[in-house]
Structures are given as C-alpha cells and as structure tokens.
Q: What sequence folds into this?
C-alpha cells in the first residue's frame, strides 16, 4: 500500500518507473490512446493526409477530352496573332519616318515622278494613300483639289479599316474560346448525369467525378484562353487608334502639299 491507498504489488496495475502519482499514470495511458486513435483515423481517411501527387498537365488535358485539343489550337493561333501584331502595328511599319521625309521633300520640290517612285518602293499604308493621289494627278489633265481630297480620304479609310480589322481576330478568339469551354462543361455534366440516370443504384462515383472534372477543366481552359485574348485586343485596339490618327495627320499634310503644287 502506498500513501494514496493503492496496492503497488497488485499485478493489475501497470508498474511505471519514475511515475508515482496515479493521475500521472492515467494521463500517460490516455495520451497514448489518443495518439493511437489519431494515427488510425489519419490512415483510414485519405483526405486528412496531404495529397501525395498532383494532376499533371497531361492528366488535365486527358480529363478535358477533345475540347482541350481544340482550345490548345486556338491558344496557339492567338499567341501567333499577338506576336504578329507586336511586330506589324508599329509606327515605322504603318508610317515610316524615312519615307514620309522623302515624300515631303519630293512634293515640296514639285517632283511628282520622284514621289511616285518612292511610293512604289514602299509597302506601308501611308505610301498607298500617297500613290493613289499621285496616280490621279498623273492621269488627270487638270487635277481637281476636291477630287484629290476625296481620293486621299477614301484610300485612307480603306487602309484604316484594314489595320483595325486585323485586331478583330483576337476579339473572335476572346468570344469563341469561353463558348467552347462552356460546350465542354455541358458535355461533362451530361456524362455525369447519364451515369446516374442509367442506373442510380449502380452509379459509380468515379464516373460522376470524371464528368464533373471534365466540366470544370474545360471551363477553366476556355477562360484562360479567352481572357488574355480580350486583354490584348483592348491593347491593340488603342494602339491602332493612335496609328490611324497619325496616318490621318500625315495624309492631311500630303493633301496640302499636293494642292499647293497644282495651284497656278
């Protein structure tokens, strides 16, 4: 018997060296019991443990099905358009500074043939506007200033429309890609609900999960393609607006020079 009235020689009581207080002994056994229970629960519930591996890119593409391949093709086309617009929608491509200086000197000197040759050697939109006006002045016996103005405005509007229409392809991608993703969403949900509709008693959770996963993956992929396309479309739309304004300014200066050379 100890000081607490407990028979320490009783074999039913576990002997632990260094622990004389009964509450300490009971607390140690209780802690071991709780630790063991937590380990058993963690092993039984996979969701409680961290995921050992994540879905790879190939697994995501396979989950989305053929919709993902279509969205991949559209994303490559959109990236190619963005790179192309960064290269072509520049001031030196639309309104080359060297050409405009050469054209201005030729028109100021009254050398229409030299200005015409310079326009034929350049493929920029501003050269197309100038060449249309110069060709009219060459054919007409007496060039009408009003007609020259209409020709410059008409050709300038045509060139501006060509510049603006290029960027509309990005707008098309930004609209179509989310719709294709929505199509994948509908197909995925149909797969999931068909698994339940055929036989609700034997509906496999893996089939349901596959359909829902396809719906979510294709929706996200469509947005990932469409949102950047819309952002770059807005950027290039502002860029083309500035270039067209500069083209109109150069055309107005050219009109003034052409009318001045035709006045007696």
A:
């Amino acid at each position: 018997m100890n000081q607490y009235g407990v028979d320490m020689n009783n074999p039913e009581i576990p002997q632990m060296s260094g622990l004389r207080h009964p509450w300490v002994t009971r607390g140690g056994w209780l802690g071991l019991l709780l630790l063991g229970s937590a380990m058993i629960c963690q092993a039984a519930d996979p969701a409680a443990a961290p995921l050992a591996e994540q879905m790879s890119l190939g697994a995501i593409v396979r989950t989305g099905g053929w919709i993902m391949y279509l969205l991949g093709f559209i994303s490559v086309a959109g990236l190619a358009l963005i790179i192309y617009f960064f290269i072509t929608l520049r001031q030196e491509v639309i309104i080359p500074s060297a050409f405009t200086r050469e054209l201005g000197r030729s028109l100021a000197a009254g050398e229409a043939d030299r200005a015409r040759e310079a326009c034929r050697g350049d493929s920029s939109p501003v050269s197309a506007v100038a060449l249309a006006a110069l060709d009219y002045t060459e054919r007409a016996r007496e060039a009408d200033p009003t007609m020259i103005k209409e020709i410059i405005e008409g050709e300038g509007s045509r060139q501006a429309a060509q510049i603006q229409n290029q960027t509309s392809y990005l707008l098309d991608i930004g609209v179509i890609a989310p719709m294709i993703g929505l199509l994948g969403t509908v197909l995925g949900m149909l797969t999931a609900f068909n698994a339940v509709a055929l036989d609700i008693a034997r509906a496999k959770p893996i089939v349901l999960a596959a359909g829902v996963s396809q719906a979510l993956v294709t929706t996200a992929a469509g947005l990932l393609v469409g949102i950047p396309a819309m952002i770059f479309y807005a950027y290039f739309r502002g860029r083309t607006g500035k270039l067209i304004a500069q083209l109109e300014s150069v055309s107005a200066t050219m009109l003034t020079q052409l009318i001045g050379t035709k006045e007696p």
User: Anything to note?
Assistant: The chain has two domains: 1-52, 57-262.
